[in-house]
Each structure stands twice: as structure tokens, then as C-alpha cells.
Amino acid sequence: MRNPLDSVLGTVTSGLVLTLVLVGLLRILVTA
Amino acid sequence: MYVETAAIDLALRWIHLVAAIIWLGHNYVNVILRPRFVPLAVAGPAQVLTEDVRGREWREHAVFRYASIVTWTAGVLMLWRQGILVDAFLLQGYPAVIGVGAWIGTLMMLNVWLVLWPHQKKVLGFVPAPPEERARCARITFLSSRTNTMLSIPLLVLMAAGSHGGGLFV
Questions:
Q1: 8 Å CB contact between A26 and B166
Q2: Which residues of chain B neighbour A7 with C-beta distances below 8 Å?
Q3: B101-149 per-position pLDDT tens digit
Q4: pTM of the predicted protein model
Q5: Contacts of B97 (CB under 8 A, 6+ apart)
Q6: Residue burial B113-139, b: 16+ Cβ < 10 Å; e: rest
Q7: Chain A residues with CB inside 8 Å of B91's CB?
Q8: Predicted ipTM of the assembly
Q9: Taking CB atoms and an 8 Å limit, are A18 and B146 in contact across chains?
Q10: Would B79 disulfide with which of B17, B85, B127, B140, CB 3.0-4.6 Å?
Q11: Nearest Cα residue to B30 out of B161, B156, B120
């Protein structure tokens, strides 16, 4: 199976998805 | 007293940013130069490095390895001077925003020193290794480098959010 990091698009998309997940978790963490 | 304090904080922030650009600049350039992973040609003749090329390769890799330490240290000092070092790393309250960034940055520095560098030494021929081993290491260094590129994206968001856009979190 191809690793998403094998392409530029995959690297950037992974980074953006990770950003969204972390920002979502942080909002919960900080406002809790 | 305020002037000295502000000047030290400004200097630390500047050092942090410049060292981070030197460090991550290597990652971003690598994405442009080698957009996709190309397996190392195992069948080809072994790479013979002249002393000149060897020296330049060594310096280039040393520059971003040590830049990672400078970046991390300046970041920790900034948090410490602001009195939020512990809260940041324990993800307590508002410092949790930069704290998640600090954890990501810590992982990235460990990635450089403990994952990338031991394998990169074999790929570049600083440490002798059979062709199959070098090919295996080339894949690991590629993924290690790309992982840091990917992690830098949320890290930059969190760094910026430490000073700007804090209202988004409360």
C-alpha cells in the first residue's frame, strides 16, 4: 500500500488533517 | 528593567524563528527537489565520496541537526521566561495551545537525532553499509523527513495561535 507521505499532496494533506484534528482537540481541552 | 526583559524575549523569538527556518527549510527544499520517493539504485556502483563532497554533505546535515537544537532550546527558554513552561508541557489552560506545539517540536527534534541521523549516516556513506542496508535506510530517512514536514504544518498554526487568534480557543 502506498504511504500518503510518498507525494507532496499527501504530505500537505496529512499536515492539514492533523492540524484540524489538533485544533479541534485543543478547543475542547482549553475550554473544558 | 523592562527594556532588558523585552530585548531578551525579542532576541529569543528571533533566534527561534531563524533557526526554525534553517532547519525546516531543508525539509521544504527536499519536498521540492524530490517530490516523490525514488528507491536507491541497489544494483548501481557504490557511491564514492571525495573528501570535498563528504565535507560539504557533513556540514549541510550538521547545520540543520544543530539548528533543531537551537530552535528547541530558544523555544523552551521563551516559555520558561514567560512562566508557562510547565503549564505548556502539561497542557494546562491557555498555554496548552503552544504546549501542543512544543510537544510536536520536541518529537521533531527527536526524530532528527534518533531516527533520521543514524540512518542518514549509512545512506550518505559516512558509515559503511551494504547496498541493501543503504536502500532500506533511504526509505526510512525519506519517511522521517516527510513526517517532520507534515508535523511542521500544525506546529506553525499553534505557534502563530500562541500570540494571534487566541480567542478561537476560549
A1: no
A2: 35-36
A3: 999 999 999 999 999 999 999 998 899 999 899 999 999 999 999 999 9
A4: 0.90
A5: A26, A30, B158, B161, B162, B166, B169
A6: eebbbebbbbbbbeeebeeeebbbbbe
A7: 29
A8: 0.89
A9: no
A10: B85
A11: B120
Q: Retrieve residue B25's grid coordinates.
A: 527549510
Q: Which pLDDT tens digit goes with each residue over B76-114?
A: 999 999 999 999 999 998 899 999 999 999 999 999 999
Could you give the CA distance from residue B106 to residue B103 in angstroms, rounded to a whole number?
Answer: 5
Q: What is the pLDDT of residue B5?
A: 87
Q: Which three cell numbers stand for residue B53?
A: 563532497
How far is A15 from B1, CA to CA, in rounded Å? 41
Q: Of A2, A5, A20, which to mutate for an interface test with B (greatest number of B Cβ within 10 Å)?
A: A5
Specify the residue for cell string 476560549: B170
Chain-centre distance of CA B95, in angstroms?
Answer: 22
Give A31→chain B minimum CA distance, Å. 5
Each residue of B55-80: b (16+ CB within 10 Å) or e?
eeeeeebeebbebbebbbebbbbbbe
B36 touching A, CB under 8 A?
yes
What pLDDT, in 10s, does the model give residues A4-15?
A: 899 999 999 999
